[in-house]
Write a structure and sequence with these properties.
The structure is a single chain. The chain is an alpha/beta fold. It has one domain: NADP-dependent oxidoreductase domain (TIM Barrel, Alpha-Beta Barrel). The strands form four sheets. An eight-stranded parallel β-sheet has the order 3-4-5-6-9-10-11-12. Strands 1-2 form a two-stranded antiparallel sheet. Helix 1 packs parallel to helix 2 and helix 2 crosses helix 3. The longest helix has 14 residues. It is globular, with a radius of gyration of 18 Å.
Length: 298
């Protein structure tokens, strides 16, 4: 039995802060369910909770954190700037802090590289974009309200434009992107790494009704290891060097997703998962081709 302690592992960001390798994702977690889920996750040992203003559950996430009884400073909280608030960054973080009931968050992300009109989500602001948003984000660490800033759903083209802008003084600490064996995005992950940007994988289990749970390669590896398909998927991400934030509101599954200590995948098993033939990307409850989002090359 290996002595690997994945539940204690952290990844060091370009700021020097250490982000827990395993967190609880709360996308699609209903407000009526997420409070108990967050509490159960923290009591099971999770120390990273991921939410967003756009999930409409920040308030309940904060309540779950307090319900756990674990001191706030021991928990890494990530939340995200909503598209319609890009030109109101300082108001947005205040709203999220109020929702969460905390004085600061450990990581604040631009949720999407999309600055939309608050009055019409189908339109973009004519005089604003995510580069201007980042310039406002850069002011937040000095306020004490945010420890680290980063981005989410940014492709290589978005990052190249952001990093080449003279107004960019802080390199994003994290790029949170969809990562699972059917959407591995090797070029994007490699680009993140080359720029000192940590990758966090969301939808790392493939999201609701995931086809991955029926994939014969994954099922074979899971049976051989005596693990669940979900555990195999999470280990694949961890061993590739990114943090994972699986979503669940079921107490038993939350605990099982965290039971990752003492084992790992072999190089051959990693290669098998790297080379699954199917490719899909999650968007809400739909399965869409990768090229719809960032192009097949990312």
């Amino acid at each position: 039995m290996s002595d690997l302690q994945w539940t204690k592992k952290t990844f060091t960001l370009n700021t020097g802060d250490k982000i827990p390798a395993i967190g609880l994702g709360t996308w699609q977690s209903k407000p009526s369910e997420v409070r108990e889920a967050v509490k159960n996750a923290i009591l099971a040992g999770y120390r990273h909770i991921d939410t967003a203003f756009g999930y409409e559950n920040e308030k309940e996430v904060g309540e779950g954190i307090r319900d756990s009884g674990v001191p706030r400073e021991q928990i890494w909280i990530t939340t995200k700037l909503h598209n319609a608030w890009h030109h109101r960054v300082h108001e947005a973080i205040d709203a999220s802090l109020k929702n969460l009931g905390v004085d600061y968050v450990d990581l604040y992300l631009i949720h999407w590289p999309s600055s939309t009109d608050p009055n019409d989500s189908k339109k973009h602001l004519p005089d604003w974009d995510y580069v201007k948003t980042w310039q406002e984000m850069q002011k937040l660490p000095a306020t004490g309200k945010v420890r680290n800033i980063g981005v989410s759903n940014f492709g290589i083209t978005h990052l190249e434009r952001l990093l080449s802008d003279p107004g960019t003084k802080i390199v994003p600490a994290v790029n949170q992107i969809e990562l699972h064996p059917n959407n591995p995005s090797p070029k994007l992950v490699a680009y993140n790494t080359s720029k000192g940007i940590h990758s966090t994988g969301y939808s790392c289990l493939g999201s609701t009704n995931s086809p991955l749970y029926k994939d014969p390669t994954i099922l074979q590896i899971a049976e051989k290891k005596g693990k669940t398909p979900q555990q195999v998927l999470l280990m694949w991400g961890l061993q590739h060097g990114w943090s994972v934030i699986p979503k669940s509101v079921n107490k038993e599954r939350i605990e099982a997703n965290f039971a990752l200590d003492g084992w790992e995948l072999s190089p051959g098993e990693l290669s098998q998962l790297d080379n699954l033939k199917d490719r899909f990307k999650v968007c809400g409850d739909s399965w869409l081709p990768v090229k719809v989002f960032f192009g097949d090359d990312e």
